[in-house]
Design a protein that fits this description.
With 199 residues, this protein is of the alpha+beta class. 31% of the residues lie in helices and 36% in strands. The strands form 3 sheets. It has a 5-stranded antiparallel beta sheet, sandwiched between helices. A 4-stranded antiparallel beta sheet has the order 9-10-8-11, covered by helices on one side. The protein has a two-stranded antiparallel sheet with strand order 1-7. Helix 2 (78-87) packs parallel to helix 3. The longest helix has 18 residues, at 107-124.
């Protein structure tokens, strides 16, 4: 897989059941650090709420994820939120659902429905975007080869991440992962060009 679905910006949704209010917030995230920062911020902001439950999914291969019930009965909050992330095939996303208790118990099935519905509302309000999984290639070459390198860059369309001109020229390019072998193959034919060992 060299592309994945995520959300463009933060979005919100809400759901009310028997006077309990469920406020849902969806965020695009790219690391566990992002998740921790947002969790800390929202737990502080909604300190008076009964529960702040969440689920997240990270990575294009969708293998890093977590669901947290934050004191709700096991499996009634985090799992339904994660279920919505999965059914929409999303990743690099965090969904938090803040619950204000309305005085009437909802029971296990009621909680599952409420958390699922709140998460679904936040996703419905979001703009879903497709992103590519990119890879980088770093290399150096002698200055007279600049035209040959730039012709390949122009034709294959990678993003120039960095470039430097010292005794030799150095360059780092970023391109969609499945296009990298072709780019490397073309670059390897340029006289004097050597790939960096980190690559």
């Amino acid at each position: 897989m060299d592309s994945y679905l995520t959300i463009q910006d933060k979005s919100e949704g809400s759901y009310t059941e028997k006077r309990s209010k469920f406020l849902a917030f969806a965020f695009p995230v790219s690391s566990v650090e992002d998740v921790k920062t947002l969790l800390a911020e929202y737990q502080k902001k909604y300190y008076d709420a009964r529960h702040v439950c969440y689920a997240y999914m990270l990575g294009a291969d969708r293998t890093e994820f977590r669901a947290n019930d934050n004191g709700e009965p096991s499996g009634t909050a985090g799992k339904p939120i994660l279920g919505q992330i999965n059914s929409n095939n999303l990743t690099n996303i965090l969904i938090l659902v803040v619950r204000y208790f309305g005085g009437i118990k909802l029971g296990t099935s009621g909680l599952i429905v409420a958390y699922r519905a709140a998460a679904a509302e936040a996703i419905a309000a979001a703009t879903v975007v497709e992103k590519t999984v990119d890879a980088e290639v770093a290399f150096s070459f002698e200055f007279p080869m600049m035209n040959a390198v730039m012709r390949i860059v122009k034709e294959d369309g990678p993003e120039i991440v960095s470039q430097g001109y010292d005794t030799d020229c150095t360059m780092t390019l970023r391109i969609r992962r499945d296009l990298l072998p072709r780019l490397r193959s073309r670059l390897s034919k340029v006289e004097s060009l050597t790939f960096s060992s980190a690559d």
